[in-house]
Amino acid sequence: MEPKDVEELIKREGVKFIQLWFVDLEGNLKSVSMPSERWGDVLKWGASFDGSSIRGFSRIEESDMFLRPDLSTFSVLPIESPHGKVARVFSDVIKPDGSCYEDSPRRILKRILMEAEEEGFKFYVGPELEFFYFKTRREPEFIDFNGYFDYVPPDTGEAMLRETVGRLKTMGTEVEYLHHEVSPSQYELDLRYSDALSMADTLITAKFMVKYVAEKNGYYATFMPKPIQGINGSGLHLHQSLFRGGKNAFFDSRDPFLMSEIARGYVAGLLKHARELTLITNQWINSYKRLVPGYEAPVYITWGRYNRSPLIRVPAIPEEKSSSMRIEYRSPDPASNPYLVFAVLLKAGLKGIKERYELPPAREENVYRMEAKRRAELKIDTLPGSLIEAIIEAERGNLVKETLGDSAFDKLIASKRAQWDDYRQIITAYEMEKYFPVL
Fold first, then answer.
1. Domain housing 51
2. 114-147 CB burial, b ≥16 within 10 A, e <16
3. pTM score
4. CA 71, 47, 36 angle in degrees (round to 5)?
């Protein structure tokens, strides 16, 4: 939108407050609000803030930063406010000299998207967003005991899901499917695919709206990867495709899998760099409680078509629907930073295409049930099993560092090592139960 379009929208809708949204390096939503009367000044000068107080941003001696609104993302928030309507707009982080702040996650994704554009590609993503509803924030008490695709009476989770979809629709976000997931109290929203930058913004908005609607109805929604032991955790399966010249560059009718050489190179890139980019797709200590065999989350670095046990799946499509050709990357969880996840996945895929990585054979058997000896014979590797292992893999490789840049990479590593150091000092209930009585 042009500035005049936004100004007309503010007046027409009676917007009283405007929130400038951005995320920190870990993907946590940050916001600063202002009365709508201040909009003209912010549009001209930006909104200043202390960058040293945001995780992963500037040092205290270089703390002055500004937010510059991206007018294409301006939208009225469908929320109840006693003080008048509220709008939000995603904003880019700017340094005092007017240049873009290179460590901003949104800027990092934009830079990698520009690399794709130089090759003639446009990157599209369609996420499957999983999460849990619980009765309270204090403890994970289920609101239902249903399972995958079970019919849910339209009063608790189903009602909140429909309300969330309706509110998102007013902001232009289209949800293709909504349903109960495998675990009790677990649900899924499938967002209609769009370009990667728009989808990263949409994911942040969708997570905000899921939590808002749950709280409004007296419940709690969480995107924690594995909140309950012994049942499936929550994933963020990402369907991805590259388009070139208006056509799906992943499609080739001559291939048994309908995969072009570009698609094969892209998948090969993801497989080769999977271990090092797992720090981005699964950035929390709890993330690795989900990535274990037996709960449908991927563990083994391989690919297949009908098989849901590998890391990457190539969904079957009718040959006449070439635009639907895509690959599904199954390890990310919904607590990740979508800007950085999209950036590293695209970077790995482009690298596989450019350097003509060889794609290993597809595996259609259940890899979970395969004997370790057989997996070793087939050279099927595994994803990192803990946060510290993921940190080491990211440091050992080059892809994440190339994607984030030296400064953002160093800040992220420092943050994750601090989390691990804090965690490994904790004496858990498991240790007290297993060791205290006998050691």
1. 3-101
2. eebeeeebbbbbbbbbbbbbbeeeeeeebbbebe
3. 0.94
4. 65
